[in-house]
Amino acid sequence: MQELHDAPLAPLTSFRLGGPATRLITATTDAEVIAAVREADDSGTPLLLIGGGSNLVIGDKGFDGTALRIATKGFSLDGTALELAAGEVWTDAVARTVEAGLAGVECLSGIPGSAGATPIQNVGAYGQEVSSSITEVVAYDREAGETVTLTNAECAFSYRHSRFKADPDRYVVLRVRFALEDAQGLSGPIRYAETARALGVEPGGRVPLARARETVLKLRAGKGMVLDAEDHDTWSAGSFFTNPILTNEEFAAFHARVKERLGEDAEPPAYAAGDGHTKTSAAWLIDKAGFTKGYGTGPARISTKHTLALTNRGGATTEDLLALAREVVAGVREAFGITLVNEPVTVGVSL
User: Fold this and answer.
1) Which of 89, 158, 160, 304 holds its CA 20 to 30 A away from the CA of 120?
2) Spatial distance between the Cα atoms of 344 and 109, rounded to a whole number of angstroms
3) Centroid of chain to Cα 334
4) CA-CA distance, 60 to 66, in Å (whole number)?
5) 155 CB-near residues (< 8 Å, 6+ apart)
6) Pairwise CA distance, residues 315 & 310, whole Å
């Protein structure tokens, strides 16, 4: 277990932002993770968990406590049952499932970060969510002081949310288990319209796994959503805001506001979200509120490839990023009466 003091945290995040931690521990086994967590809890030391750092906004003052970087390794495939250690690089693990000819997470290719973060956010993209294939999550329960195994139902998954996100100080994810599908080398049903168009199939159709993965990677790269150290559009957390889910009454009021602001022919994106709710597009809201691709004049700007990504153009501070985020939130609220919610986890700061 490696230990550093006054350790920079910015290099451990995809934003490349944030101040140092009082202490940084890197754990490479589950036992080391648990030992570090117990030590912090027993001493009352604030604890920050870091996986791939792709969903993290750390304040410029850093973190006064112990930052624990989870760097565990473990990829186990038994038939269609997959188990990943929390520290496994997610997109590398997805590539290995595709090579093995198994479907279930191929449309989640290119998503940065670690495997242990996927159940926390219920990571999803291009018509797939990890909640559809996760069977169990093994975690250290800080409240009970023991390792527990939670079933899919016990994880309480919903859109970009889970039991782990609802109670962030209780569980430390150690391992994630999935049930994949052997579809004779084919992908799962293609559910996302953009992906289906790019693949030239009808929604619900299947394509060879490798083709699905390659297509998703191209789509993501075109939006600056695949990490590239030379491309500042990828110095981000991907989608900075979640897509708003509105009650039908809220959506009706929003719809009327869109007509009033943009004209009678304007139609906002609308997707059924179940139980009297409708989901709309955060990217559309941001764009129509006047925050177009490349918006900004400082070192933190909207991506030139995707309005939903806020980026560090080099030399930015966390406060620069937050100032831009607050400007976008205020502008969308004024234009459409909807308050956007940030997707990345904030440490020592807030919008």
Assistant:
1) 304
2) 19
3) 27
4) 16
5) 119, 131, 134, 137, 162, 163, 164
6) 14
Amino acid at 94: V
CA pair distance 83, 36, nearest whole angstrom: 23
282, pLDDT greater than 90? yes
Known catalytic residues are: 160, 239, 343
Give the separation between CA 176 and CA 136, rounded to whole angstroms. 6
Residues forming beta bridges with residue 48, ordered by sequence position: 67
DSSP-derived 3-state class of residue 250: helix
Determine the Cα–Cα distance for residues 26 and 68; give it in Å rounded to an integer: 6
The values of phi and psi at residue 90, to 5°, are -60, -50
As a whole number of angstroms, the distance between CA 180 and CA 135 comes to 10
Cross-strand bridge partners of residue 95 = none
Look up residue 304 and give its DSSP letter: S
Q: What is the 3-state composition of the chain as percent helix, strand, coil, each rounded to the nearest 5?
A: 30, 25, 40
Which contiguous run of DSSP H or E holds residue 16? none
Could you give the CA distance from residue 209 to residue 98 in angstroms, rounded to a whole number?
A: 6
pLDDT digits (tens, 9 = 90+) for 284-340: 999 999 999 999 999 999 999 999 999 999 999 999 999 999 999 999 999 999 999
Phi, psi angles (nearest 5°) of residue 293: -55, 135
- Model confidence band, residue 274 (pLDDT cutoffs 50, 70, 90): confident
Give residue for tokens 């897509």. Answer: 243
Q: Say if CB 238 and CB 57 are below 8 A apart.
A: no
The count of C-alpha atoms lying within 13 angstroms of the C-alpha of 22, restricted to the half-sphere facing its C-beta, is: 9
